[in-house]
Amino acid sequence: MSNGEFEEEPKDGRSGSGGETQLLPRFRGVAPEGESREATCVREILFVELLGGLGDVLISLGAIQALARSYPGARLTVLTFPPGGELLEDDPLIHEVAYAPSPDSTRPHGARGVVERLLARGDWDLVVSDTSYDGIDGLIRGCAAPLTVDNLWRSPPPDERVDERFLRILSDEGLIRPEAISPARLHLTPKERSVAAGELTGLRRPLVFLLPDAGMEVKRWPEESWGSLGRALRERHGADIVVPVGSDSGQAERVSRFVGERARVWPRGTLRELAAALSFADIAVGADTGPARIAAALGVPTVTLFGPSWHGRYGQPPPHVDLQGYPACPQRDVSDFTQQPCWYAEECTLKERPWRTCLEDVSAENVLAAVAPFLEGRFDSELAVGGEEPLGEVLR
Length: 396
Known about the structure:
Rossmann fold; 2 domains; 396 residues; globular; 13 strands; alpha/beta; 31% helix; six-stranded parallel β-sheet; five-stranded parallel β-sheet; single chain
């Protein structure tokens, strides 16, 4: 377990043992009968995010940051999995990032064990979680914290985005202030951006990142389509293209070859290194996976291609654009896409459609039409991203 057995010096001199933050007027809690709930103080907050995906960390980030802004005198700890947790480090609103061991068949209850140990500290005033498996929700309900929210994932409707639902639940519970709600933002250091700027030297604007990687075949757009899109962006908008290496080590190189000139492969590194590079993008186009959410959390416009998952629940808010593959799919389960036959087959299971994935229903022209409004008339293609420009000009 990293971060010194959950104990670390508070960031920026902030300490939960300092002043007391009064609870908001309305909340769900377990204060003893007859005791004034309004007198309850929030000094220590624990947010448990253990759903397992990089995207899940970023879906939760808006709620995490809203809690921190609502209780500016409290100390906020986030428990999550690596490597996604590294994106939360250096966030001035988060004092500590604690890690549970990555899911492993040899330690099926590893995440629950870490939650148990953290809760045993007994000094939490507010515990919030998006996690209910392995009885983790029950652990949180039964802990000594006076305030608990044990499952932010509870029954989201089809067309309410999950990140918005998290915020609505916390608002309805009286745990966050309206003025504390704003789009989730990742925080990078000047050094991280400076290093990335050096690696991007010589590229021109508009700079477009193509993010073809996805953890499962069923979520991938065909590589030839990525190539067609990249060529059209280069020819019609003068764009330079960057393709990061993902889980398939050869995919980025293949896509880059399909695009042709003015395409560059970004080597695989840490998530923070990828985020630093993405922070220079003028737009990012990606499959429904973590890197597209990283770009959005950096304030970079995105066009995201949704296949098995439903854009109405997992999409990103405007000005981001969400494109859904085959919206009328009869096998779609909006409430849980992991129960769809294609999820287990890792390819489209509709016999009348000769597809591997429903993203094949999305054409390169469809995506180009979604990207074009972000680029038209806004850039001089000779404006370099790096090179001889002063660093202050590059870091926007």
